[in-house]
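Could you help me review a protein record that somebody else here produced? Here is the record exactly as it was handed to me:
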Amino acid sequence: PHGLAPSGKLAVEGAAGSIVQWKEPTRRPPTARPQSSAVPRSGSLRTPYLYLPSPFRASESSKAPRPRITLSPLGCSHPLDKRDPPQLRIDTSEATRASTSASSNGAALPGGRFMILMYIFETYLDIRQHRALKLPTLPKPLMGVISNEKFERSRAYSLDKSYFHFIHEAVTIVMDTTILYYKVLPWFWKKSAALVTSIGLNAENETIHTLAFLAGAMVWSQIVDLPFSLYSTFVIEARHGFNKQTIWLFIRDMIKGILLSMVLGPPIVAAIIYIVQIGGPYLALYLWGFMFALALLMMTIYPTVIAPLFNKFTPLPEGVLREKIEQLAASLKFPLKKLFVVDGSTRSSHSNAYMYGFFKNKRIVLYDTLIQQCSNEDEIVSVIAHELGHWKLNHTVYSFVAVQLLMFLQFGGYTLVRNSKDLFESFGFEDQPIIIGLIIFQHTIIPLQHLLSFCLNLVSRAFEFQADAFAKNLGYAPQLRAALVKLQEENLSAMNTDPWYSAYHYSHPPLVERLQALEDSDSKKED
């Protein structure tokens, strides 16, 4: 259950929370999605982000990057998936890949070295995780809880994704390194100016020039990402029984995403360029204010205008399940206004649930796959209880404040270096385009982003334990245990995890730790 992020283009993504951590395939079903840690996962040129907030954490896309504007709706539940946090961000990753360069000195060279070092470090963690996935037996706490048949299927699925990940990351680092050291970015910027001139437009207009640059990046990323997306969706996901979409639905979603990007992207990019041009000493504040207002607008129209373009949302029918969810919401004074079921099964068998909405106008969305997979209504309600725990414990508020602060600080940092001629020259640029400045700035702060990512994952895992405990205190401990196990089984999530890998990557504790925490809280009460 992840938001559409069409390859290589400006795109708007919805975001939502989830009860379990699930590492998505390269192309995600075009639905509201959970997101990952607050900063790029690796130090490559695919990860220059300008973080713009949203009050909850949401999941990042697969490791097949793409330039887009990403929106995480205000008021969604706190994420239970690993990846980037609540944020509206300008992701210029593919634009960077499609064109990054560096000279033999300056900021670019150390950045490239750090990118390679991070690839080596993360590959080491991936190898550790791969070894854990190959273990032939379940962890002791899961013996008798997870069937051997489900374990073997989960193991096969996880290993397939792991092999695919190694190949994808190797191709990516080779491309990123080549782009960085062969000065592709300034070349691509100049070529986009030539394109603008050839069609009779004014290349001196930075907005037009930038849009041409991003359009080229979109085409490039489509070419690069499509083979990986197709293989992930129609080979790996299909092999293990998850993919439900046809090639025509896949193409239709991609076309819708492109059209959506063409409508939403240009005015947003033009506004950002204009603000930077006239911002003066208050630029950071103006950029933050614009992006915050844009986030509110997009979070308003996403559930009612954008999401229905890709999925069908129907009211949850009257019955026992609806009655129990409404009773739970009322008991917690959660202002539930609408309760929907989304047809996630048209694209994938993966399951999820999330909530969103402003203030007194909250909505809950259940995937039809979640309803099908849980054994009874109480298990589904326990999942909702966990999500409401994030709301009741103010996790969304804490996330919102943290991301707002990070966003403002990033804008502040950008204003300090945006006129640095030496910085631009170190990447091979004679002039100082605004969009290039954003890309370069994000590339130079990658080390800090990795540290923030690790710290935010620590906080996120703590929030998950608290939300589990909240549901338990409402009397849903047995049902939540059963639901967590069921979702782990049905999504074929990894049963064995390497502690170093999970500590670095996971925003959600592994299943073993969550079940153990629920049991420990039981033991403490008995004592």
